[in-house]
Amino acid sequence: GRKTQKTILIMMSNTGGGHKASAEALQQAFREEYGDKYRVLIVDMWKEHTPSPFNRLCDSYSFLVKHGVLWRLTYGMMQPRLIHGPYFSAVQAFVARQLSCAFDAYDPDLVVSVHPLMQHIPVRVLAARAAETGAPPPPFATVVTDFTTCHNTWFYPGVTRCFVPTDYCRNLAVAMGVAADKIVTHGLPIRPIFSKRLPSKSALRSKLGMKKDPPAILLVGGGEGMGALEATVRELDARLGGAAQVAVICGRNRRLLERLRATVWPGGTHVAAVGFVDNVHEWMAAADTIITKAGPGTIAEALISGLPILLNGNVPCQEEGNIPYVVDNGVGAFETDPARIADIVAAWLDPANRAEFDAMSRRARALGRPRAVYNIARDLAAITEEGAAARAEAAAAGGGKAGGRAAA
Ligand code: UDP
After folding, report:
1. CB 281 within 8 A of CB 198
2. Mean pLDDT of the chain
3. Burial (CB count within 10 angstroms: exposed 0-12, middle 13-18, buried 19+), residue 157
C-alpha cells in the first residue's frame, strides 16, 4: 500500500550547536505547517551510520577548532574541489555500505543536509541505490547554515536544491557549479519561536529576573573564553554601573555561571546569569543589545530581535565573514578586548547617541528573516511531493521502488 506519511531525513552533525539548531528549526516549522503529514527525522549520519573512525568526526572537529592553526590548515586544504572531490571518493569506499543500510531503514522521501560534509557521499550513495532498483532517488536538498564565508564542500552540483541565507553564499554556490535555478535564497532557518509575538519587554524582564528600566546588555557565551566574559562584565560594571543591566547566558559553561552568581559588582550593575536555556528568544526580546561570538544562528536571532550586535570573537574560517556582514550592514561592531567592548557598548547606550542606536536596531530588524524557516519548509515539502510523484510514475511504469522492493 502507499504510504500516507512521508519521511524527511535531516542529516546533521554536532560540530557546533548551529547545525542542530537549524535542523530543529526546520522540524518545528514542518510540524506547525503540516502537522503529521511528514515524519521529520534528525540524524547525525556520521556518528550513527558510519564505521570507526569516521563516526568520531565531531570529536576531531572540536579538537581542530580548539587549535586554530590546525583548523585553518584543514579548512584551507580542503577548499579546492581537486582535493575534497577525490578525498570524499576515497572515504565513500569505507562508509557507503553502512550509509546505504541507513537509507534503507529510514526510507526517506526527501533527504536534507544541514552540514558541509554531507553532500557528495550521500548524494552518490542514493544515486547508486537508485540505479540498482531502477527508481529515481529521493530528492536531496542542502540547507546552508553559514552566513557568508561557507566552505566549498557545502556545494555539490548533484543536489536537487540548495538553500542559502545570503547573496554572498549564492555566488559561492554558482562559482562551485551549482545550477542557478537550484539555488534559493530565503535566509537562515531560525526556530519558529523567534517569529512569534511575545509579551511586552517589561513583562519579560520581570519574568526573567531583570530590572524594569535600565537598558539591558545580553552576553551570550559559548564553552570558551570564560576569563574574557567575566572581564567584560567587570568592565561594563565599571563604565555603566546602575545605568545599565547585564544578562549573561553562560551556555554549558557551569563554572562561569557559578562565578558570576557569586560576584557582587562594585559599580552596582544588576547581573542576571543563567546556564543553557531554551528561551534565548525571550532573553533577546528583553534586551537592548547583545555581545556574542560570531555564530550565524545567534547573529540571525539577534537581527530578528532587533538587537545591535557587538561581536567579541569568532571560530576561525567559517565565522570570519560574519564580522563584515554585521559591521558593513551597520548593525554592530567587532572588538575582542573587554575594556574596549565596554567603551563601545557604553557609547551605544549613551542617551546622546539615542537616534543612531535606534537606527542600528531598525537596520537589524530589517535584515532579520523570521519567515525564512517557513519558506524553506514549504519549498522542501514541494520537492518532496514532486519526488514522490516522479517515483510513483517510475513504479507504475514497471521499475521503481515499489516494484524493486517487492521483487527483492
Ligand atoms: N543557544 C541556546 N541556548 C543557550 C545558548 C545558545 O538555545 O543557552 C542557541 C542559540 O540560540 C543558537 C545556537 O544555540 O541558536 C548557537 O548557534 P550559533 O550558530 O550561534 O553558534 P555555533 O554553536 O553553531 O557555533
Report:
1. yes
2. 94
3. middle
32 alpha carbon, distance to own chain's centre: 20
DSSP 263: P
CA distance 127 to 136: 8
CA dihedral over 145, 146, 147, 151, signed as positive or negative: negative
Q: Which atom of ligand 1 approaches the CA of 281 most closely?
A: 11
Q: Among residues of the chain, what percentage have pLDDT more than 70?
A: 95
Any atom of ligand 1 within 6 Å of the Cβ of 165 = no
Q: How far is the CA of 188 from the centre of ligand 1 (A)?
A: 13
Q: Residue 186: how many CA atoms within 13 Å on its side-chain side?
A: 24
**CB 17 less than 6 A from any atom of ligand 1:** yes
Mean pLDDT of 97-107: 97
Locate the ligand 1 atom nearest the alpha carbon of residue 252 and give its number: 8
Query: What does the block give as the cell for 176?
Result: 562551485
Q: Spell out the residues 6+ positions from residue 325 whose beta carbon is closer than 8 angstroms to its own.
A: 147, 148, 166, 168, 299
Q: β-strands 110-113, 289-292: how paired?
A: unpaired
295 lines ligand 1 (CB under 6 A): yes
pLDDT surpasses 60 at 205 = yes
- Round to whole Å and give the CA distance between 333 and 303: 13
- Quote the CA–CA distance of 86 and 21 in Å, as a whole number: 30
**Cell numbers that stand for 385 in this block:** 511531493
| Residue 297 Cβ contacting ligand 1 at under 6 Å | yes
Q: Nine-digit cell at 103?
A: 537509507
CB atoms within 10 A of CB 140: 26
Q: Using one digit for the tens of pLDDT, what is the confidence trace for 279-333?
A: 999 999 999 999 999 999 999 999 999 999 999 999 999 999 999 999 999 999 9
Quote the pLDDT of residue 133. 87
Q: Rounded to two decimals, what is the model's pTM?
A: 0.94
Measured from the Cβ of residue 5, the count of other Cβ atoms closer than 10 Å reads 9
Q: Once rounded to an integer, what is the mean pLDDT over residues 185-190? A: 97
The ipTM of this complex is 0.98
